[in-house]
User: Fold this.
Amino acid sequence: MSSMTKGIVAANLTQTYSAGRKIWGPRESFHAVDRVNLTIAEGETVGIVGESGSGKSTLGRMIAGIENPTSGSVTFWGQPYAKVGTPEWRRQRRDVQVVFQNPAAVVDPRWSIHAQVKEALSTHERLPTLEADDRAEAMLDMVGLGAMGKRLPHQLSGGQLQRAVIARALVLNPRLVVCDEAVSALDVSVQAQIINLLLELRERLNLSLMFISHDLSVVRHISHRVGVMHAGRLLEIGESSTLFDRPRHEYTRRLLAAIPADSPRLRRQRDMQSFGGASVASTPISPALS
Ligand code: ADP
Ligand code: MG
Assistant:
């Protein structure tokens, strides 16, 4: 797909971290992400699953352009990513937004959510105040928070706050949104609402989405294609239904069969209200699947 210009092309992406130093001898390093090739087309949602520590978030940060790879490259609608921190990099920032797990950690507790959405706009565009107000309001409307713009973060529920964070990300009209465990901290019913919101916004705005989650049923529901990370490698990637119904790798089969090791309450909720996704059976392949 090297001729594809509309979308993201990651080639041989590798991230090497230091693993600390033995008392004597050289610093040891390991590949958190190891020679990953991945494309995300315009309007496409690619899900990434894998155990805790498999390199999902590191891959996401490199695809989002907020961390330089040790080697390899990311091309974004035909343009290579600039080095983190350069003026060119700052210009590229508005086209890629990231939504993390914990919305409370990324908002300013002292500002209304309207003010924060508006602020996101004004860091990238010089706009007359009235126009910025209008666009912030329209965006909050779109995520179902039209009546709540004046509220402070602590006056919102977790789900509402994540909607506000999504509004702040999307008001910039990005091409790509990287969601890293974006619904993992929310109750299952709220997760479903946020997923539906993302599905709706994706259509309306023709977004490309990278959707990282350890929750396989959520990933299956939202993704066109799904990739499986294991020890820094992209083990396999394929159409969502194909991957879930006919995984090629034994590792993927075991991953699909494993119960996410979260609370018994969440597990019960998931059993009762599944997204129609992965089977729930057998033993986890690792103590922590998150
Ligand atoms: P996942 O999101 O799949 O849980 P991560 O990408 O967070 O995996 O981490 C992959 C591996 O890289 C882990 O072993 C983790 O401890 C390590 N790692 C992640 N970020 C850093 C960092 N900034 N410095 C050193 N090691 C890191
Ligand atoms: Mg992670």
